[in-house]
Structure of Arginase/deacetylase:
Amino acid sequence: MPNMPSSTALIHYAARAGDHNDRAMAATPYLAAALAAHLGVAPTTVGSPSPSDPSGWDAELAFALPAFKELATALDRALDAKRYPVTACSRCAPAIATLPVIARYHPDVLAVWFDAHADLNTPENSETAYLGGMALSGPLGMWDSGLGAGLKSAVLVGARDIDATETPVIDGERIRLIAPGANLVEDLKKAVAGHKVYVHLDCDVLSPGQMPTDYKVPDGLSLEQLGAAIAAIAQVAEVVGVEIGELETGETEEETKAKAKKLVETVSPLLVAQYGQQAQ
């Protein structure tokens, strides 16, 4: 098959990205190590940790911009070499850099956004000025991040903490919401069937206690439901890459290792290159 990638490219984004605290930066080496062990490939590390210093979106973006550009370049190189990209991120904000690259190579891609939040705020309407809250809106062209756009459509999966300013743009066509509930897996399956998709996973899509993460939003997915959703995507869609973020360190190093390994096991159906596969 002409589009079949030759291998997997594992990228470890290690730098600050609008962080409220340092725990996600501290967790990414464990996530990258778990992914490396599962995939049998060594990661390419982008950036390095620096102490969190929460401020407005513009200051955070300016600080993160060199690492974001390096991340975009790493992803561009992987896709140009027809390698399947798997990225371990600290937070969700690096999607500002990754999704425009994905959209350039796959103009018809559907972003599947697993997150407790919609991340559709813009600099003009955000009440918190939090960079991560704009992580999806930038690639969708709702504001100019300086890193490009090009993403045409997205499916929000598991979002339940949605701001009043975000609700009007979730139109069911360009941006669709699949809320937590008994029908989530079947609804998701219908939404992505036959599509080319890129999967973004924030750990806070899960109910509190499933994974250590910054935000603890009730009534999320269980690990079992997430696993079923991931398996459904792999069955009916052509997956062109995956990125994982918002895992924080646990109480001990052993807990962090165990949680990272469990997370990788849960998403394992997406860790196999599927370019050129015919959707079922």
Observations:
- Residues 28 and 90 are 6 Å apart (CA to CA).
- Residues 275-280 have pLDDT under 50 and may be disordered.
- The helical segments are 23-39, 57-80, 95-105, 184-192, 223-236, 253-267.
